[in-house]
C-alpha cells in the first residue's frame, strides 16, 4: 500500500464533510490535518463505536472528570494555537496465505528487554502498542480508564479512529500515526489524574507527522483463564501479534523495536508468561 504525500492546505481542510471510513477486511488509510480532526462528524452504526461526549458528562466515577479535564485542555490548546501537523489512520488485514506455518518455523525467539521506569508512550522510535478493544478506543467515552483509554485521552486526536474504524477482526490491526500528546498525567485506572499541559517535542517525518507509530491490537477476554491455553485461542493471539508486528517487505532492511507490556492481562485475565512467548 503505497503512500502519497498529502498537500494540506485550507482547501484540503474543507474536503471531508463526512469522514471516509476504514471498513472490515479492507486495507486502507485516512490522512488528515490536525485542523480537520475537530471537524469530523460520524453516524452511529453497530460495527462502529459512538463518539458521544454525553456519556462522559453523565454522573459516574470521579475519573470521568479527569478525562474531561484532559479533553477540554486539548480544545483549549487548539483554540489558542491550531496545530499544523498531519495524522494518518491505517487499517491492515493479513491475507490468509501470509499466516506462517508455526510448526515449521525455524526463526529464533527475539530478545525481550524489561523495565519499570518508563511507560509505552515514553519509548520514542519504537512501534508502540495500544492494548485495544476490538472496537478501537474501548471505553474512552465512558467509564474505561486503563491503558487504551488513557492513551486516547492524553493524545486526544486518536479519538477520530473511534468513528472511522469498524470493529477489528482477529487478523486485523489499526495503525495510528502522528498523534501528538497534549496532556501529562499521573496514576492508572481509578487513580488516573490530569496533571498539566504537555509540550510534545517529538520530531516529525517528511509528511509533517509526529514520529509516533501506535498499533492497536485487541486480545481475547477470558472469563475462564484456562481457556487461553486452548490451541485455537493461542493461534488467534499469534495471528494478531504477527499482523501487528509484521515488517512490510519494503522495510525489511530497517530494524525497529516494539514497546509493549502486559497485553490482554489484567482485566482480560491473560497469562503474562504466555503473552511474552507469543510476543517473541
Overall number of strands: 8
Q: How many separate helices? A: 8
Radius of gyration: 19 Å
User: Uncertain regions: pLDDT < 50 for 5+ in a row?
Assistant: 6-17
| Intertermini distance | 26 Å
Helix content: 10-25%
Strands of the largest sheet, in order across it? 1-2-4-7-3-8
User: How many structurally independent domains?
Assistant: 1
User: What summary fits the major beta sheet?
Assistant: 6 strands, mixed
Oligomeric form of this entry? single chain
Q: SSE order in H/E notation?
A: HEHHHEEHHEEEEHEH
Structural class: alpha/beta
Mean pLDDT: 87
Quote the beta fraction.
Answer: 15-25%
Question: So what's the overall shape?
Answer: globular
Family: Belongs to the poly(ADP-ribose) glycohydrolase family.
EC number: 3.2.1.143
Enzyme class: hydrolase
Keywords: Hydrolase
Amino acid at each position: 500500500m503505497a503512500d502519497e504525500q498529502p498537500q494540506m492546505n485550507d482547501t484540503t481542510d474543507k474536503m471531508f464533510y463526512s469522514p471516509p471510513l476504514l471498513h472490515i477486511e479492507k486495507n486502507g488509510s485516512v490522512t488528515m490535518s490536525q485542523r480537520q480532526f475537530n471537524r469530523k462528524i460520524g453516524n452511529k452504526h453497530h460495527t462502529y463505536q459512538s463518539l458521544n461526549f454525553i456519556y462522559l458528562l453523565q454522573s459516574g466515577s470521579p475519573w470521568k472528570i479527569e478525562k474531561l479535564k484532559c479533553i477540554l485542555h486539548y480544545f483549549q490548546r487548539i483554540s489558542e494555537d491550531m496545530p499544523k501537523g498531519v495524522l494518518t489512520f491505517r487499517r491492515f488485514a493479513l491475507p490468509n496465505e501470509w499466516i506462517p506455518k508455526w510448526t515449521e518455523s525455524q526463526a529464533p525467539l527475539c530478545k525481550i528487554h524489561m523495565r519499570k521506569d518508563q511507560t509505552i508512550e515514553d519509548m520514542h522510535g519504537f512501534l508502540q502498542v495500544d492494548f485495544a478493544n476490538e472496537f478501537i478506543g474501548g471505553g474512552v467515552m465512558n467509564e474505561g480508564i486503563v491503558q487504551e483509554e488513557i492513551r486516547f485521552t492524553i493524545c486526544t486526536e486518536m479519538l477520530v479512529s473511534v468513528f472511522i474504524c469498524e470493529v477489528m477482526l482477529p487478523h486485523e490491526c489499526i495503525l495510528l500515526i502522528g498523534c501528538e500528546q497534549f496532556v501529562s498525567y499521573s496514576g492508572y485506572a481509578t487513580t488516573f489524574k490530569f496533571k498539566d499541559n504537555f509540550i510534545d517535542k517529538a520530531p516529525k517525518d517528511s509528511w509533517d507527522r509526529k514520529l509516533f507509530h501506535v498499533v492497536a491490537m485487541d486480545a481475547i477476554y477470558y472469563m475462564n483463564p484456562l481457556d487461553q491455553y486452548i490451541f485455537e485461542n493461542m493461534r488467534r493471539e499469534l495471528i494478531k501479534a504477527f499482523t501487528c508486528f509484521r515488517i512490510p517487505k519494503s522495510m525489511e532492511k530497517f530494524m525497529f523495536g516494539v514497546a509493549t507490556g502486559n497485553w490482554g492481562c489484567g482485566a482480560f485475565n491473560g497469562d503474562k508468561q504466555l503473552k511474552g512467548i507469543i510476543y517473541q
